[in-house]
């Protein structure tokens, strides 16, 4: 490029807490995985759970699989930022990794249910962006749960039975995405992240940037 100077402009901002929820099988883990594997710069908050590990899951990557006793110890020592019982198992968000990421201005993604989303919204409203994923139909939700083929018939039945009550919470979220076409849902998520990063109140560095901008006096040419 000629006729101008360019520099990399970094404006300091607060970390984003991207919370996604959906009834089981609507596709939130798939969308989350695609986002985490992309260049968008999000890291996953790895929850603790007392649920049994699925064949495809890795301890420490998808969840920290722990006993009920260990869960209760973490919960009672305030080591969890939020926790809930979902489909008969305990799930919770370890506090320390989130607080570190937020203080360093890094963005985190939370795959948690409506109870957890509500707790994070109550505690950290300014940092939370909550997204609810809906299936295109209940028939498709059911077939996705079967296609995933990682749960027993009994577990699938419990999850389907709970899905209507979960969907009732859609109004508590900032954005709603209907996951019909996966690529489209993924692009919608990216658009949300990009827009939310630009919000004025999330970018305290703008004060310095604008002050310096206004102090600059270009030489007339
Ligand atoms: P959740 O995390 O919400 O329980 P998953 O991400 O595990 O759901 O998705 C459930 C199943 O549906 C998986 O087999 C996944 O590959 C599939 N799936 C996800 N999104 C779509 C989509 N848009 N179209 C078809 N299948 C999908
Ligand atoms: P799954 O057993 O399918 O991995 O998850 C079941 C439900 O628990 C999903 O709705 C998922 O988002 C939710 N979940 C996972 N981790 C957490 C967590 O740390 N806290 C809360 N509140 N829910 C969680």
Write a structural description.
With 221 residues, the chain is of the alpha/beta class. It has a single domain, classed as Rossmann fold (3-Layer(aba) Sandwich). It has eight helices and nine strands. The protein has a five-stranded parallel β-sheet, with helices on both faces. The protein has a four-stranded mixed β-sheet with strand order 4-3-6-5. A hairpin with a 2-residue loop joins strand 5 (80-86) and strand 6. It is globular, with a radius of gyration of 20 Å. The structure holds adenosine-5'-diphosphate (ADP) and guanosine-5'-monophosphate.
Topology:
Layout: E1 17-21, H1 28-37, E2 42-44, E3 48-49, E4 64-65, H2 68-76, E5 80-86, E6 89-94, H3 95-103, E7 107-111, H4 114-123, E8 128-134, H5 138-148, H6 153-167, E9 175-178, H7 182-197, H8 206-215
Parallel strand pairs: 1-7, 1-8, 2-7, 3-4, 8-9
Antiparallel strand pairs: 3-6, 5-6
The structure holds adenosine-5'-diphosphate and guanosine-5'-monophosphate.
Residues 21, 24, 47, 51, 82, 84, 86-87, 91-93, 111-113, 115-116 line the site of guanosine-5'-monophosphate (5GP).
